[in-house]
Amino acid sequence: MKRNTTQNEYDIVIVGSGIGGATLLNRLAETGARILLIERGQSLEDSCAARDSKAIFVDEKFRPDEQWLDGNGQCFNPGNYYYVGGNSKFYGAVMLRYREEDFGELAFEEGISPAWPFNYQELAPFYHQAETLYQVRGKEGQDCCEPSGAKGYIGEPVADEPSIARVRDKLAKAGAKPFSLPLALDIDRWMDRAKTPWDAFPDTGTGKMDAESAALNPVLDYPNVTLMTDACVRRFHTGADGKQIQSVELVHSGQVLRISAALFVLSAGAINSAAILLRSRNDKNPEGLANSSGQVGRNFMNHNCTALLALNPFRRNSAVYQKTLGINDFYLSDGSGGGPLGNIQLLGKIDGTMLKANLKAAPQFAMDWVARHSVDWYVMSEDLPNPDSRVMIDSSDRIVLDWRRSNMTAHRKLLKKAKRLMRAAGFPILLSQPFDRRTPSHQCGTVRIGNDPGSAPLDSYCRSYDHKNLFVMDASFLPTSAAVNPALTIAAQALRVAEHIKITELQ
Ligand SMILES: Cc1cc2nc3c(=O)[nH]c(=O)nc-3n(C[C@H](O)[C@H](O)[C@H](O)COP(=O)(O)OP(=O)(O)OC[C@H]3O[C@@H](n4cnc5c(N)ncnc54)[C@H](O)[C@@H]3O)c2cc1C
Fold first, then answer.
1. CATH superfamily for domain 10-505
2. In this structure, how many other beta carbons lie within 10 angstroms of the beta carbon of residue 175?
3. What is the mean predicted confidence (pLDDT) over 376-384?
4. What is the pTM of this model?
5. Probe ligand 1: pick from 88, 131, 213, max atoms within 8 Å of CB?
6. 38 vs 250: CA distance, rounded Å
7. Per-residue pLDDT tens for 327-345?
């Protein structure tokens, strides 16, 4: 093993315990390398609030006490979570692969989704490993544009509740091909704790397979692995040449520390990783670290998403969790010879309290009635990379997120298709509301991979072209957002990068 021959305290420092950081750690732990995982947040403790929609959606008990600025200089409080396990503690546990076509160039009315530096076949074995690691349950052969290759599913999909089984049937009769969402979830354990949905609810170790429960916990007892919580990284420091990263500066329990290592992996999430690189600028790297291409913080993507409530006023939706169906009929084409539109999937069951949190002036009884009669969908289209869609740091060191949405023509068409389908399936009332900038749930693209160091900060293994001992392994690396949920692709790439680090750095 090419170990640390210097006075470094660790062989590897990983910043951030989300899907990227924790999955990478899971595979590197077995090498015996001395690894420090630095996490800004704490572990989520179980509490009544963890399953209480008022505490989560009205009191916003779990959101950070943080303000970012948008492109117009307006402050907002982002739904970006800082806990051990990162955003995956709140995720909907949908673990879909990108489609094979997503790795090639795709043409949309409003622009191009560029090709990846490698094809789907390169990632396929790591998708399989990621599905096994996250204990994904699913069924092959139902999803109409499912990518090739055996899946690593550990069991049958989470069952539809009776009201959702009926919706599946109605959709099929209306000509659609609904499929069971692959889910990283043990439904019995989740429901034993309390009968609630899991999408956007925090996981306190009760059945969701997230970055903490599935990837981090199994290796935490290794003697070579150390987890430091309540430790917020401010910046990296380089040696005099500006090339080698020497140490990371952080604030731990109120104290400023510097920790040295041979190798650094930045996994703080697509917005914070870009911000940390920009904040680390120095004389030799005046635009920030890993940024000779000028692309750090650019190409921010977040999916174009709309909540669609399909109501039948004469039938109650008795579902508790609901989130078991997806529809990819319009993923690769609009069905009439036009371009790709996106994915439709169920949201976790909405209740009246959640609706009222978004529509404060509406009477509670009306929101309760709507929620009792609605089947709730998430309509999702690709957001295209645009260098002007950016994460920046202002003169007071605050995060500025200037998100420029793209591809809205395709998104509007998808919403229209979804509404038509729901009407045909027996839902005459359709209410829709787009997700806004306060919800950067599918943030990605800010430190992308590419074959050309002039236009991408990272090579295809997420190594910085500028600093050979720096990797960025989280949603930042994604060169395109596709139109499926990102976590499985982040996990698969983390496993691929771990193999690369083992071979090139640790043998
Ligand atoms: C409500 C919700 C539902 C979602 N549902 C799905 C879904 O069903 N399927 C899916 O695929 N995806 C889903 N997502 C998205 C998914 O959770 C993310 O894509 C994924 O978790 C991102 O992983 P990451 O490693 O890039 O970053 P993160 O999860 O953001 O992890 C970054 C980690 O770094 C830490 N950190 C940040 N800054 C610092 C710092 N300065 N110092 C030290 N540590 C730091 C953070 O605390 C965090 O633990 C959802 C997200 C949300 C919020």
1. FAD/NAD(P)-binding domain (3.50.50.60)
2. 11
3. 98
4. 0.98
5. 88
6. 9
7. 999 999 998 889 999 999 9
